[in-house]
Amino acid sequence: MLSVSHVGICGTDYHIFEGKHPFLTYPRVMGHEFSGTVVAAGEGVGVATGQSVIVNPYLSCGRCIACRQDKPNCCVAIEVLGVHRDGAMCEQILVPAGNLYPTGGLVIGAGPIGLGTALFARIAGHEVTILDVDRDRLEFVERDLGFAVVDGSIATSAELLRSRTAGEAFDIVFDATGNGASIRSAFGYVAHGGALVMVSVVKDEISFSDPEFHKREMTLIGTRNATRSDFDQVVASIRDDKIPIARLVTHRTTLAKSPHDIARWSREKAGLIKAVITVHDDA
C-alpha cells in the first residue's frame, strides 16, 4: 500500500478527461505517473515500510506471448493504472511490489510525451527537430531546450520539411500528437529507408498511400508503455541532470483542486508544459 506523494498529469489524462482515449471505460480514477511512500507491505515482498518509490503503472500477466518474449509493455492482458484500473489521483493506492522502484526521494515528471521523446533521442546522440503548431511551445523548446523547430501553423508540407534535410526528409519520425490528421501527414516526412514511430494513440482509422509507403521501404512501428529498463534509464538521466525537470514542470496543484485545474488546463494550455499534483509532500 502506498501513500501517494505526487502525480504527473499526462497528455493521456487530458484525453481521458475529454473522452478520447480508446482503451478505457468510465467511471475511472486517473493518474498513472506517480510517486509515493510505502505504508504497508505483504510478507516477503522485499519492500520496506517508509521507502520512497516511483511506480511502473503497467500491470502485465507474466504468461502471454508478449510477456514470454520479455515485452510486458504490450502484454495481451495488460492493465494500466489510471486507464484499465483506477489510478493514483487519490490518497492511497495498492500496487504490486514488483512495480515499485526505490528512488531515495526522487520525484519524476519527465515532461509531455513529445518533449520526452525528443529529449531522450538527443541523449542517444541524434539530431532532433520538433514540429508543432503551438508557437509558444515552439519558442519554449527552441529557447529553453535548444531544439531546432518547425512552425506547423505556417506550413507543414513535406517539401518544406525535406528542405531542412537537404531534400532527404527524416530518418525517424515520432508522432506524439494524438491527432489522426497529423499521423497521416507524418508518412510524408519520412526518408527513404526510414521509420515512422506512432507514440500517440488515437481512436481514428489511419490510412496512407501504399505506393509511397512501398517505394520508401519505410518501417511503421507502434510503441506502447514502458519496461523496467526504460524506467531505469529515465531515473538515471534525471539523476545525471540530463533532463531539465525545473523547466518542464510549469504548473502545480493539489488533489483537492485538481478536478477544477485539470478541466481548466484542458482548455487553457498557454505556458503549460507539465503539471504535477501534490497529494502528500512527504516522499
**Mean of all residue-level pLDDT scores:** 89
Secondary-structure-based class equals: alpha/beta
Given as residue ranges, the uncertain stretches (5+ residues, pLDDT < 50) are: 107-111
Gyration radius, to the nearest Å?
A: 20 Å
Number of helices: 10
Strand content: 15-25%
- Order of helices and strands, N to C? EHEEEHEEEHEHEHEHEHEHHEHE
Largest sheet: 7 strands, mixed
Question: Can you offer a commentary on this structure?
Answer:
This protein has 283 residues and is α/β, with parallel strands linked by helices. The protein has ten helices and 14 strands. The chain has helices spanning 11-17, 65-68, 113-123, 135-143, 158-162, 180-186, 210-216, 228-239, 245-248, 258-265; strands at 2-9, 33-38, 52-55, 58-59, 79-80, 92-93, 100-102, 129-132, 148-151, 170-175, 190-198, 219-222, 249-254, 274-278. Strands 1, 2, 3, 6, 7, 13 and 14 form a seven-stranded mixed sheet that branches. The longest helix has 12 residues, at 228-239.
